[in-house]
UniProtKB/TrEMBL annotation:
Pfam families: DUF3224. This is Uncharacterized protein. It comes from the Eukaryota. It comes from Apiotrichum porosum.
């Protein structure tokens, strides 16, 4: 059964560095942060890493992808699980989507699936952030291998 929960967290310090040695025509960077979750239904820490691509001619608009390794409890179940995150920063406002990777989990969180979202002011560490998460606990689904077509391989060689 899917359970909808409120997520409360605070971001730690944001660390960002340019990729490509700062020589790329577009601003492209890597970022990391830690998150402390302190809600009733989700408690623990998240360790996050991201890749960001800033849109030309802007300093406050970007798209990004990343992952968070969460250690703690969700609905009283303890363990670790990986969240895939993608989103955008538009005029200083960050909008994010989370997807739980059920195969990348340990303890009682093994088999947890779900998705969620949050919004916040980009670049503001330490402020409370609220989000939503829908989770379900069950069997760990098998990962499906990518299927390559023989014609694709021929064109690549």
């Amino acid at each position: 059964m899917v359970k909808k929960i409120d997520v409360h967290f605070k971001n730690g310090d944001w660390k960002e560095q340019p990729s490509g040695g700062g020589t790329l025509a577009l601003r492209h960077s890597y970022g990391t942060k830690e998150i402390v979750f302190d809600g009733q239904e989700m408690k623990g820490k998240g360790f996050c890493s991201y890749t960001l691509a800033y849109h030309p001619g802007t300093e406050a608009t970007a798209t990004y992808d990343g992952q968070m390794v969460f250690h703690g409890t969700v609905l009283g179940k303890e363990g670790s699980v990986v969240f895939r995150e993608h989103g955008q920063i538009l005029n200083g406002k960050l909008s994010a989507i989370w997807t739980v990777i059920p195969q990348a989990a340990t303890g009682e969180l093994l088999g947890m699936s779900g998705r969620g979202a949050y919004e916040m002011i980009a670049g503001k560490s330490g402020l409370p952030v609220k989000g939503k998460l829908e989770v379900e606990f069950g069997e760990v689904p098998m990962m499906q291998p990518s299927v390559w077509r023989s014609t694709s391989i021929q064109y690549m060689m």
